[in-house]
Specification:
This protein is α/β, with parallel strands linked by helices. The chain contains 6 helices and 7 strands. The strands form 2 sheets. A 5-stranded parallel beta sheet has the order 5-2-1-6-7, sandwiched between helices. Strands 3-4 form a two-stranded antiparallel ribbon. Helix 3 packs parallel to helix 5. Belongs to the universal stress protein A family. It comes from Pyrodictium occultum.
Length: 153
């Protein structure tokens, strides 16, 4: 199978940067389109009730993520030679949004990093990569091993 559109999740962490680097290499090798996606959690949920803030408040929360994402995409284009690279900013649950975007935009591969959280941290925070793998039934998923990041510290 040849992949034609790759979505890579990016949250600013070293693990996600490693996933981006891997996705860039794959996109170059395969001549695939690359979509770099950042998912911002919903702006406000209090005591089980959803509070929908005014648009300026939402924009204030989203703007730093948008700027970081646009900077990364510009860097990818300049350093890799890839031309069909686009930033994607989504709001919601990271795993749900990545899979939904990939499926609705005819992408055929999702690339995510794995932070390697263990024990209580994984129980509390969950694992985006595990959830992406478990809910993505139409799109292949590549989980990038990031254990080398721990060895470098």
């Amino acid at each position: 199978m040849v992949y034609t559109c790759i979505v890579v999740g990016y949250d600013g962490s070293p693990a996600s940067r490693l996933a981006v680097d891997k996705a860039v290499k794959l996109a170059k090798l395969l001549g695939a389109r690359l979509r770099v996606a950042t998912v911002v959690p919903p702006p406000a949920v209090f005591l089980g009730e959803m509070v929908i803030p005014e648009q300026p408040v939402v924009e204030e929360l989203v703007q730093p993520a948008r700027q970081s994402l646009e900077k990364l995409v510009k860097e990818i284009k300049e350093t890799s030679g890839l031309e069909d690279v686009e930033p994607v900013l989504l709001i919601g649950d990271p795993a749900d949004e990545l899979v939904s975007f990939a499926e609705s935009n005819d992408c055929d591969l999702i690339v995510v990093g794995r932070r390697g959280l263990s024990g209580l941290r994984r129980l509390i925070m969950g694992s985006v990569s595990n959830k992406v793998v478990s809910i993505s039934h139409k799109v292949d998923v590549l989980v990038v091993e990031t254990s080398s990041l721990k060895k470098e510290k």
